[in-house]
């Protein structure tokens, strides 16, 4: 270690509190706790000479790692008071390394305690990657009293960055305390005993601090970045990534023309590719965006099994008709049969269905074998729970399931939580006995373990993966990948108590703490298919277009990174020409905004700051095809009146100056160079360009720029420039101006000076240029003088007759961007220049002209005050554009963001829409699952009969096989059935509201056939997990007294339209008007056999919502 560098055992320069490493807590005493104080046995005195083993057992934490060597060293320090400020002890050979004590007798970064550290002697001089792991104990004692000592212990990974570790406050320097240094000195001598236990680092990360840790370098793999709460997703993606057959199948989905943020398949391919070839953790933002998620959704944790099912359902659809078609089923889908077999009669009902994972109970099960036995245990249906067998009536029966086949890749979902009635919450179950886990789970069989740390309300997810058949295990924890041991995988993630370590994980009562990490998913690969499923993914398996696209993006990123890294070496040079000025149809010389540079004919060059001015002229010469002697460059500056004008030509003497020197000298307050390129127009007899003198004291010439205003066209533009003698009158250039513009010589003209944005003044022809205060770079605007008749015609068409009036009006113009409310190919995005004084009708006319549509069939939507297209303020509520855009402007008056409006093309006129009621109808046919949305426009006095007629006119047909063809119109509130519309209710709604949203369904036959005296209606709604997270279409349901639960379920399933696979995941509950939930058990004989019905009760169907976004329901949504 550098002698000049202050030293501590930890990071030497950090806070002292962080540095001080106290000794570990004493282990729990083995003394009998029932003994009285007088009976307690005295603590035996240990000698640093004779009782080293006992001291090691007491001071060093127990470890399971292999011990390479334990070494004890006694160093008698003969003259403590004469030690240097920084002193080192003799070299100790231990475990193949050299060690020494490093001391600061008078303290390190403080002066109250002596500081003592253990140092890896050759850490600074050896290879950068060399390290050693060691536990160590340092004891100070009197040479003659080996049983009186002060002790500190620690363990550390010694590296070149952290070559020493120890104790800043080892022993007090004050002479008063009994444990001070003086009490251990004997004639200025002291014994320092060092016990070093060098430990073998089997994983390569033992006691690693993970500062500057490189996952790829250590393990060969990289992790995934966490976006906020996406660790659950990351653990699943790692599981899928290392199921190599699945990765190959994903690569087979055609994505060549896809956009990553809009294609789940392409985004997943990119994550997989980057995980294989990148050297750092891979981002998943593109992937979550392809799901249709926003940043808020990335901070919401979801159930992994649920997310996996939704993802795989989506991918299965993407794979249809591609080479990957059927890959997911071939890998992950098994088949099971559910059956009910009568005991006393020959009748059996069975149904076979696919499964993607198996959810196993773990409570009361010693191991997975017990969990499987529990899963397939037959249930006897008897007594009140007899089975209604068709043709045989109520019968005793056996109910169970049989596994018909297992998939090549089996996902076992461990049910880790159960409802605790005493605590009214879901709690984690204690899971499998680690010893039994080892006997049941053959390490060769299991390949992936997904782990959750925490409780139901939150926590963290990570994965243990064995990527190769007989390979090593690794822990994938978001962006970090570390080697793992088989013990960590099999024993430390199944609940239960931890291995007791004194002072680390012990409760006050002496019992070890529970683990909070639990395996929740185990992934097995069929042994005979291991080689196939884990077959390496080669470059031949990866679509070429994918690799090429990512490699191209990487090159561009590298180029941008390099540009950013070298940014301080470069600057921008913005070059304006006469063409720039001529295309300017607004105020000032030009608009120098870089994003509009191409449109404004401005050259933007990225130039090195150390480049000479001469080399810039040479580049420009080649670009415009003129020798650098035939043009000169003027500096353009910001004037105090907020205009940009030419200032001075850059003198030839600056040719060898750097561009940064030119900028600093002539444009100190500018970060870039803005230059005007003046082409020569005068040549001498030898053909050499001649530029008038303007900047020397004797110069009489000034360079004036000319614009032409055309009142009849309401347009102004640049024309060119002229040189004028500043001592002559303005009228001397009138003929030249007429010739430049193309006026007849007898045409009478007006001239105005463009001073600043709100100051356009008429110029006195008889004043000299000097008296008129005209100078280099000033702009004169020329127009012909209109006759009274010409003025009348211009005014009649809404025009302005003079430059100053026109320019003042132009100041109110702003660029406004328009985009379609619903994007499609015939609805482009575009920009219009509009005036702040325009109202709705004027703006709509301009937009309609741009779209070539009838402006009466166009609706404009102001996004600054409206969130819904059905809540549009009537024609901007009469506000002018300037008033609407107040929120777009910053405090300085500039636009802080692009002004943007939405437009909607209409089938009928806006006036008709505003005079009618807009109705959105969700039509449910043939089942409640099969929906289509129909938009109607109905008169305010329409009846329910008119509404039905309008539906039929839109082509709506009700197609159920057994329906009544009768129509029910109803609405919902927060996902629950609210009211059914009668003609009276309907008329009230459409007459008073601008927008109505309703549902339309065919009245089922069972309602017509119901027993009106005994049957009743009950409302049914769908939710996920919580009754407040509703989704899907609610409905009315006929409740039949004494109907078996099995029959009620069948009718419910028929009403919902869910198939058997979807229905198998539905849990039926009774939800009261306070949202209390009573789960209905499969063993119940009827719906209300264990629960008494109360008014206001509803049936709740708890299942995943695959159709709506999480905003309303909280369920996982992935865009199709």
From TrEMBL:
Residue ranges occupied by any MATH domain in the UniProt entry: 70-196
Catalytic activity: Thiol-dependent hydrolysis of ester, thioester, amide, peptide and isopeptide bonds formed by the C-terminal Gly of ubiquitin (a 76-residue protein attached to proteins as an intracellular targeting signal)
Gene3D superfamilies hit by this protein: Apoptosis, Tumor Necrosis Factor Receptor Associated Protein 2, Chain A (2.60.210.10), Cysteine proteinases (3.90.70.10), Phosphatidylinositol 3-kinase Catalytic Subunit, Chain A, domain 1 (3.10.20.90)
Keywords (A to Z) from UniProt: Hydrolase, Protease, Thiol protease, Ubl conjugation pathway
Biased composition annotated in UniProt, kind: Polar residues: 1-13
Any one GO molecular function term: cysteine-type deubiquitinase activity
EC id: 3.4.19.12
Pfam families named in the record: MATH_2, UCH, USP7_C2, USP7_ICP0_bdg
Enzyme category, top tier: hydrolase
Residue intervals of the USP domain: 222-527
SMART domains: MATH
Region annotation (Disordered) ranges: 1-31
GO cellular-component term (any): cytosol
GO process terms (BP): protein deubiquitination; proteolysis; regulation of protein stability
Protein family: Belongs to the peptidase C19 family.
PANTHER family reported in the protein's UniProt record: UBIQUITIN CARBOXYL-TERMINAL HYDROLASE, UBIQUITIN CARBOXYL-TERMINAL HYDROLASE 7
Protein name as annotated: ubiquitinyl hydrolase 1
Record organism: Thamnidium elegans
């Amino acid at each position: 270690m550098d002698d000049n560098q202050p030293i501590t055992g930890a990071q030497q320069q950090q806070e002292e509190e962080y540095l001080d490493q106290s000794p570990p807590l004493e282990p729990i005493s083995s003394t009998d706790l029932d003994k009285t104080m007088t009976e307690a046995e005295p603590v035996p005195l240990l000698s640093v000479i004779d009782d080293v083993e006992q001291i090691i057992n007491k001071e060093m934490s127990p470890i399971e790692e292999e011990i390479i060597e334990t070494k004890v060293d006694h160093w008698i320090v003969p003259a403590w008071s004469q030690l240097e400020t920084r002193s080192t002890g003799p070299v100790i050979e231990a475990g193949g390394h050299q060690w020494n004590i490093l001391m600061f007798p008078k303290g390190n970064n403080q002066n109250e305690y002596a500081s003592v550290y253990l140092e890896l002697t050759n850490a600074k001089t050896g290879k950068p990657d060399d390290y050693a792991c060691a536990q160590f104990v340092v004891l100070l004692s009197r040479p003659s009293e080996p049983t009186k000592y002060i002790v500190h212990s620690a363990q550390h990974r010694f590296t070149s960055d952290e070559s020493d570790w120890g104790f800043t406050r080892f022993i007090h320097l004050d002479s008063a305390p009994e444990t001070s240094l003086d009490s251990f000195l004997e004639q200025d001598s002291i014994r320092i005993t060092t016990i070093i236990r060098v430990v073998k680092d089997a994983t390569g990360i033992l006691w690693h601090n993970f500062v500057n840790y490189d996952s790829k370098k250590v393990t060969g793999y990289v992790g995934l970045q966490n976006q906020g709460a996406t660790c659950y997703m990351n653990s699943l993606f790692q599981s899928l990534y290392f199921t190599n057959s699945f990765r190959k199948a994903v690569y087979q989905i055609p994505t060549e023309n896809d956009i990553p943020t809009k294609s789940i398949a392409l985004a997943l391919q990119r994550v997989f590719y980057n995980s294989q070839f990148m050297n750092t953790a891979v981002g998943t933002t593109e992937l979550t965006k392809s799901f249709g998620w926003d940043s808020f959704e990335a901070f919401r944790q979801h159930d992994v099994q649920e997310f996996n099912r939704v993802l795989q359902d989506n991918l299965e659809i993407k794979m249809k008709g591609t080479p990957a078609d059927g890959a997911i089923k071939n890998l992950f889908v098994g088949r099971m049969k559910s059956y009910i077999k009568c005991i006393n009669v020959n009748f059996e009902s069975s149904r076979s269905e696919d499964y993607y994972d198996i959810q196993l109970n773990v409570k009361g099960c010693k191991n997975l074998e017990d969990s499987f036995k529990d899963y397939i245990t037959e249930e006897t249906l008897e007594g009140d729970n007899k089975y209604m067998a068709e043709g045989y009536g109520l019968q005793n029966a056996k109910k169970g399931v049989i596994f018909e086949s297992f998939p090549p890749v089996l996902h076992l979902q461990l049910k880790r939580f159960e409802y605790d009635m005493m605590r009214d919450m879901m709690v984690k179950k204690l899971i499998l006995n680690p010893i039994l886990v080892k006997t049941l789970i053959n390490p060769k069989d299991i390949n992936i373990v997904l782990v959750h740390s925490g409780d139901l309300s939150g926590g963290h997810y990570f994965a243990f993966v064995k990527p190769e058949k007989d390979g090593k295990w690794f822990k994938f924890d978001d962006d970090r990948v570390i080697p793992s041991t088989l013990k960590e995988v099999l024993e430390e993630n199944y609940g239960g108590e931890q291995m007791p370590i004194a002072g680390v994980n012990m409760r006050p009562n002496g019992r070890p703490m529970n683990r909070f990490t639990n395996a929740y998913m185990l992934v097995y690969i069929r042994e005979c298919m291991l080689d196939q499923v884990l077959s390496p993914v080669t470059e031949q398996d990866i679509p070429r277009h994918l690799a090429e696209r990512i490699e191209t993006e990487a090159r561009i990123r590298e180029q941008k990174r390099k540009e950013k890294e070298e940014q301080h070496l470069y600057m921008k040079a913005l070059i304006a020409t006469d063409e720039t000025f001529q295309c300017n149809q607004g105020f000032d010389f030009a608009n120098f905004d870089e994003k509009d540079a191409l449109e404004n004919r401005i050259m933007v060059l990225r130039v090195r700051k150390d480049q000479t001015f001469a080399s810039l002229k040479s580049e420009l010469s080649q670009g415009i095809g003129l020798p650098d002697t035939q043009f000169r460059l003027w500096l353009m500056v910001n004037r105090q009146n907020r205009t940009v004008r030419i200032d001075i030509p850059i003198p030839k003497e600056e040719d060898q100056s750097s561009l940064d020197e030119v900028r600093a000298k002539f444009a100190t307050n500018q970060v870039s160079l803005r230059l005007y390129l003046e082409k020569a127009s005068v040549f001498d007899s030898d053909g050499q360009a001649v530029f008038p003198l303007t900047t020397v004291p004797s110069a009489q010439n000034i360079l004036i720029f000319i614009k032409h205003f055309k009142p009849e066209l309401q347009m102004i533009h640049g024309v060119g420039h002229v040189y004028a003698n500043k001592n002559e009158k303005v009228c001397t250039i009138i003929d030249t101006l007429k010739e430049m513009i193309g006026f007849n010589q007898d045409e009478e003209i007006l001239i105005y000076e463009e001073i600043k944005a709100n100051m356009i003044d008429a110029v006195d022809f008889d004043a000299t240029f000097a008296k008129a205060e005209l100078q280099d770079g000033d702009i004169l605007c020329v127009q012909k003088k209109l006759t009274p008749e010409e003025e009348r015609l211009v005014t009649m068409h809404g025009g302005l007759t003079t430059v100053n009036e026109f320019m003042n009006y132009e100041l109110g113009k702003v660029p406004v961007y328009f985009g379609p409310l619903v994007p499609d190919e015939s609805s482009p995005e575009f920009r219009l220049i509009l005036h702040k004084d325009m109202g709705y009708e004027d703006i709509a006319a301009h937009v309609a002209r741009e779209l070539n549509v009838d402006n009466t069939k166009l609706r404009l939507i102001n996004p600054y005050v409206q969130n819904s297209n059905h809540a549009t303020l009537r024609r901007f509520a009469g506000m002018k554009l300037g008033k609407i855009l107040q929120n777009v402007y910053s405090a300085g008056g500039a636009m802080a963001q692009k002004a943007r409006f939405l437009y909607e093309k209409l089938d009928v006129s806006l006036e008709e829409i505003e005079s009618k009621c807009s109705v959105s109808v969700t039509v449910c046919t043939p089942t409640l699952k099969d929906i289509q949305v129909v938009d109607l426009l109905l008169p305010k006095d329409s009846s329910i009969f008119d509404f039905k007629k309008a539906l039929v006119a839109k082509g709506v047909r009700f197609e159920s096989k057994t329906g009544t063809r009768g129509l029910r119109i109803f609405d919902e509130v927060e996902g629950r059935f609210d009211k059914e519309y009668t003609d009276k209710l309907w008329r009230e709604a459409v007459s008073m509201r601008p927008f109505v949203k309703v549902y339309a369904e065919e009245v089922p036959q069972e309602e017509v056939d119901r027993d009106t005296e005994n049957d009743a209606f009950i409302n049914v709604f769908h939710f996920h997990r919580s009754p407040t997270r509703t989704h899907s279409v609610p409905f009315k349901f006929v409740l039949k007294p004494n109907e078996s639960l099995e029959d009620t379920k069948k009718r419910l399933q028929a009403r919902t339209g869910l198939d058997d696979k979807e229905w198998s995941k539905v849990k039926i509950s009774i939800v009261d008007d306070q949202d209390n939930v009573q789960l209905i058990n499969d063993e119940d004989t009827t719906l209300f056999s264990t629960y008494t019905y109360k008014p206001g009760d509803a049936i709740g169907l708890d299942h995943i919502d695959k159709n709506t976004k999480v905003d309303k329901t909280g369920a996982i949504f992935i865009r199709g």
